[in-house]
Predict the 3D structure of the following.
Amino acid sequence: MSQQGERPAAHEDDWWRRLYDETAADTGSTDAADSLDDRFDSASDAVGPSGQGEPGRDDGDGGTGAAVPDPRTPPAPPVQARAPWEPPAEAGRAPWEPPRGAAQPRAFAAPSNPEPPPVDEPPPVPPPGHDRPGIVDGPPPVPVSPPVPVSPPVPAPAEHVPPLPRRPVAERAESPEEPAPGGATGSGAGATPGGPDPVAPGPTSRPGVMYVGDRPPTYDAEPTALPATTPQELDGLVADTVLDGARYGTYTLRAASVRGDSARFRGEPRRDALLTVRFGAADNALVLVAVASGARAAEGAHLAAADACRWIGGAVGRSHARLAEDIRAGRRADLKSGLQRLTDRSYGRLRARAAELGLEPHEYTAGLRCLLLSADPDCRTRVFFGVGGGGLFRLRDGVWRDLEPDVPAPGAVTGEPVVGFGSASPESGPHGDRLTMDLGITTPPSPYIESSPPPPAEPFRFRASVARPGDTLLLCSTGLAEPLRGERALADELAERWTPPEPPGLAAFLADTQLRVKGYADDRTSVGVWEA
């Protein structure tokens, strides 16, 4: 077959027989190349450079004339007409049909706005006459011109972008545009969808009042000097501030003791002592809060106050079961007599300690004020007792009331005189039935009768009252009781802060206790009880 396609009259294999016929005589040498490779190249040129036979030629495959691929060139893979972001088509499924089987999990998040393919690079389309694999009964392909190869764009060198300057924390917190943690903005907007639930706003912040009155106090508000001590006095050191609290039954307890401004300036120890302790468990528990204030001019006043709190605490602890029962039963007479005996014994130990130290009784003493609170939710009886100065107040409906028990004036006589107390014996005197002579003989103490210790210099104070829901009971030392009685602005400020139904936290209660007033620089100890 010639290059023009006509079919020769002779058999097409005659040239091969004439070329390799062994009976034909050799034509002799020639100048043309006649090697096996040359002949193969000649045959290849006759067939064609593409490796395909001419149309209608029978190459031993039944005369179909199908194209034979070149063994040296691998066949190109079939091209599918789909965009890069489309999933590969499944065999036997139309594009509009859902995929078969369970969907596979994705290992990455889908882009929110997928970019379309570039305009100058249309998706590849197979040439005409080739079926698209994996598509059945699909529309016939539209013949288009082959795409012009475009060299991939060369990425531009990355430009260094300096980081944004960070603003201070205070500026970022005040900016309304920046979102706060949890998806809320600085202006108080709610959380974004999918974020945590918005946190309810806390209570209103307390006013930034550091002192009340016309002028600020003389001393600084913070400590400036520490008390001087020796290695032998380390056990008697007293901290500048003590803070405690608890919640039992229907009440919440807050207690704080702070060194005064003058003591902080001069480097003196805190003379006030505070003890908060619980005896027993469950509803039978009894809470004792003791506040003691040492004498101002005494050198060991802070040690005497600590001893008074410790000894009254031990006495109450040994009798807490009986005391808790009397409080729940409302036996006021039994409570008063029993607590007075415990207080007298504690002051008797103070006097004995003063004798050991070689001091006068008034040089080693302290004022003592205590509260007894039952842990039983059904018991709202609050018992106060003590000796010495201080204050007991109640805040109800925003109004303070002074609950300090009345004490008779010195020398006042109440009640009828009895024999041996306030009246003379009928057998005594020059006209009496019995005359005695003082011979100066010391009478030895009786081994069978123990004389009771002398009563303290201050009278015993006792009060038992029933609390109402919403009441606030305040027990304090002289350092806070005096400004409460003498400065109306302090009483109004504390009433405003402590009137809300929720009691203050420990830090807030400490800040309220330290509300300063000019002219009052002593130690402050306060105990607040908020009734639910």
In short: The CA atoms of residues 211 and 516 lie 4 Å apart. The radius of gyration is 54 Å. The first strand starts at residue 211 and ends at 212. The chain has a mean pLDDT of 73.
